[in-house]
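== Polypeptide entry ==
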Amino acid sequence: MSSLVRYFAWLLAAAVTFATLGPPGLRPHANLGQDGEHALAFVLVGLAFGLAYRRRRLLIAAAAVVLIGVLELMQFWAPGRHARLEDFLVDAATACLGFALAAAADWLLTRFRASPAATSEGPAE
């Protein structure tokens, strides 16, 4: 299951990279406005990578923020694209939100996986 989630995370990252650096006409539009589209894409990326790399989540989140900055800077050389600080801030913040949602999902699953019998002290006498 873990390799499937990792595969999906990297596929999603490739799609977001293409949408960010590819020709503007080929970029998908969700009618959420520019910030909404960025937020949706990067919260999904953060969530996917947060679930795929549970044991190194903080390191991967930091690397994601750096790579989001690099991706934004690469737009200076992509025809028809514009690097903007606002885009970086939205992308980085929503990716971190995705990582936080992955951590919350892990916490909830761990909490509810524990059997009620395992948490009790034993049979009452």
The mean pLDDT is 87. Residues 2-106 form one domain. Helices lie at 2-21, 33-52, 57-74, 85-113, 116-119. The longest helix spans residues 85-113.
